[in-house]
Amino acid sequence: MTRFACATLALLPLLAASTAGAQTDAMAVALKGTHDMIKGNIIKSAEKMPEEQYSFQPTPEVRTYGRLLGHIANANYMICSRAAGEKSPATEDVEKTRSSKADLLAAVKASFEYCDGVYAKMTPEKSVEMIDFFGGKQPRLAVMAFNNGHNYEHYGNIVTYLRIKGIVPPSSEGR
Fold first, then answer.
1. Which domain does 162 fall in, by range?
2. CATH number of the domain that 117 lies in?
């Protein structure tokens, strides 16, 4: 075998690892873009809903608008801290302790900022590490994808609450 062929074979694992790392990094960038989009829609929705409607509850079986935002803040802390491999910085159950628009908006923004920091620290190597999550093993990056899905699920609820109150959701507004 020639020296060139030997050198090429020796470099193949490095090339494969580099390509895998680039793909993982691209996935993290894509997930962060999705995170930023849903973050913007949820925060704008929280800003659009009048304070007096934060206690609005379409039926007795569902959360109030304010409690829904509190749930999102709680979940952001829980899910993103799990993906980061650290203790949640949350010091309260926002859904149960906050009720004013200003307090809930601040909590939601802070929870999204926390998740922003988790994305900022997510390296390609760290993003593929397997962690325990809801009774199974998942890559850290999949946990962040789950958080996006959870936020979109509840943005769907938010859209319904806004529309019932005659408010156009941010995602339906013109650019």
1. 21-167
2. 1.20.120.450
List Cβ neighbours of 58 (8 Å cut-off, separation of 6 or more).
160, 161, 164
DSSP structure class, residue 139: E
Residue 174 covered by a domain: no
Closest CA to 161 of 50, 34, 12, 70: 50
Instruction: Judge if pTM exceeds 0.85.
Output: yes
Structure-token match 């304010």, residue found: 66
Nearest to 116 by CA among 25, 39, 171: 39
In order along its 175 residues, the chain shows pLDDT tens digits of 455 444 444 544 544 444 445 566 788 888 999 999 999 999 999 999 999 999 999 999 999 999 999 999 999 999 999 999 999 999 999 999 999 999 999 999 999 999 999 999 998 889 999 999 999 999 999 999 999 999 999 999 999 999 999 999 999 997 6
Residue 1 lies in a domain: no
At a CB cut-off of 8 Å and minimum separation 6, what does 171 contact?
41, 155, 159
Q: Does 85 reside within a domain? A: yes
